[in-house]
What we know:
single chain, 334 residues, mainly beta, Immunoglobulin-like, five-stranded mixed beta sheet, 26 strands, elongated
Amino acid sequence: MKKILPIIATVLFSISSIAQTARVQVIHNSADAAAATVDVYVNADLALDDFAFRTATPFIDLPAGVQIELSVAPGNSTSVGDALLTVPVTLTANEKYIVVADGIVSPTGYNPAPPLTLQVFAMAREMAGNSGEVDLLVHHGSTDAPTVDVVETGVGAGTLVDDITYSEFQGYLTVPENDYILEIRDATGTVGVAAYQAPLATLSLGGTALTVLASGFLNPAQNSNGPAFGLYVATALGGALLELPSAPLGVEEFNASSFTIYPNPANEKLNINVAGMDLGQYTVSITDMLGRVITNSAINIDNTINVNNLSEGIYNLTVLDGNKVMVSKKFVKN
């Protein structure tokens, strides 16, 4: 990391005469041991020397309006000719981008082994639009993790990310500055994989824009005993990624059950069903996509919820046992 800022300064100086530029942040998320440190070139110029896994640059200016080549080479490279991967890109002037390096370099020892790639997200943000909110960009960069949902269970915000697959970005989510619990679940939304604390309020992160990355391996034994799976956060300032601390899972009781809500989209009522379970002891919270609680209520004796008074839009329905979140599902109100 100590070599990054001087080289960035050199690159900035070398492009200072270029009229059109774009702002770019680069994040190293390749968990392959062979890529523990890499060199990054812009065209033939060394931009990042010995760039470490789970490290991010700050946002830097790069030429826009012309094609440039971004290349990733081993950490001991001597020139761009040693590159493992070269990606031509044409950046839009005054736009902001986040570029994430994911994937595997080694020919053996990793299962699965998708190749090293650079994932580019346009319309990035360096700060949130409101000082009391946080803008979250989610990226799935774990090569052996399946398609997953991200469900917030701490304040009952419900499903934040639905069916995100390796290499994908979920566009920015704007959430109030609170302390959250993020559960990673399988694509059904009922089987918990892991849970993490996201203490945005405790860390006073209001007004910031963050990138949350799934990183590492769910099964290190099948991946050269590499770094374990976790959620990591990059800030616009760059530096070492922040590891989110783990939290208890809260969905075990529903793992063997089939949770459904219907019809979806709904007009007047939602029917709720969890096979083999009596829902009489539970309550329901409905939140909008900003995490604001619209209503809290008991489940009707016929296992229905009245949604007639909701405005048209997308909501999360969360089933609670007291203050414990059992399961959440997204639904559409027509």
